[in-house]
What does this fold into?
Amino acid sequence: MPNLYNIVAALCSDIVNSCSEEFFVKYSCVSPAEKDRIYREVRAGVGTLFLDGPEEGAVIRELIPGDLTETFFAEMESLIERFKAEGDYYAMLGLLQILDQSMALLLNQAVEELEQENFSIVLNTNRESVGVGLLPRCSCAWERKHRLIHRYNNLESFLYNILLIENSVLGDLIDKHYFLKKDLFPRFKERNAVKIAATPLRRERNFKVQLTDKDKVQYFNITYENPSFDADNELIWNKIWTAAENESDIVVFPELLGNVEMTAYVADKIKALSPEDADKIPSLIILPSYWEKNRNVVTIMDKFGNVICKQNKQNPFRKEFDGVGYLEQINSNLVVNILHFEGVGRIAIMVCRDFLETEYMQQLMRCFKLTLIIVPSFSTGSYDFRRSFDLCAHEDCNVVWVNTCAALIKGKEANFQDIGYVRKRISRNEDEAQMLYKMPICKGAFSGECAHDCIYYETIQGV
It folds into this structure.
């Protein structure tokens, strides 16, 4: 029996490859008469997509597995082939919109299945041949219903339940998807909001920078000094527990201040808690990245102490030493991890420079319709990050950026008035000043002092 997702993916591919931006702009203003014609054509070809009743005001019905018969598929394929032969792309896109609505229940069931997997790939098996992948599209509490309608020159502007991923946009990147289980955010249903805790962690560094050259290019590497990371890990755990006591849903650490023992240490701490205390742990823990074997890696852990995934930094940072440029000597694995959760949407981790690479950042936003980007950073300033926030604003994508005082160097104090930001969408009735939450640096940082107690909280609410 044919695969419904393969048929829909092929339909998406035909539309993407055959229709211009002008077509999508015009279709966004399709006339009621044309819409009625499309409904009549589709209902005549595949009646299963509609409730029984008079033809006028036809009502789309949600498909159930029992509807997916050989007759249904034969009717679908026949109708699509006729529309293609006639070059009737208005009808093809209208059919796709009907399917997007009709598949809502099936996609919800798919989410439940995907939640049981360690990681997921797309639902259709013909991605390589048709050039697109399909996944369920989780809703987001702060995302406008017509989030993409101002663009209307892309197919995804007309889809609400289907997440369409175009290989041509993804390029050489490899996407892995993690559909988080419903019990992971126990407070979300009540709050319709996500509380973020972010910490710069500390003023001290636990690593040295080594300068090398290779194949005519100068590089810098990171080597960790501390033979015992007990104190570092205790500080990390104290921050997690402080965030837990403040009922945080996500806790975010900066870049580079991790260590080889950190993940196991935190996991053991969580698993040793009483059930009452374990319930308080933040749903997601974005641990400080760790630089090893030419990889700069952030570990994403859940509240149960399990590693969900590890996100590699993809774009090397360029830094000057004594006026000479050096490149971070990292190797990219090209894997992009996307976390999905109903009500939160889609979360990506972009490690420092990744967020500043505009093409890369917009590539991920276009591919996955991101709703939250988390940016752990080790940077000598905040200016460029604030400029990148604006690129996310019209996409209803919120951003959490946290830097560390350990990146502060003499002469750059003016760049460190704030050590982090949360850029969020607000309702039209709220004060615009609420869009950007600032995390002011503690004054002791400028004199090299650190009490190790800085942690900031902000809530991203439904709009």
User: Anything to note?
Assistant: The radius of gyration is 24 Å.
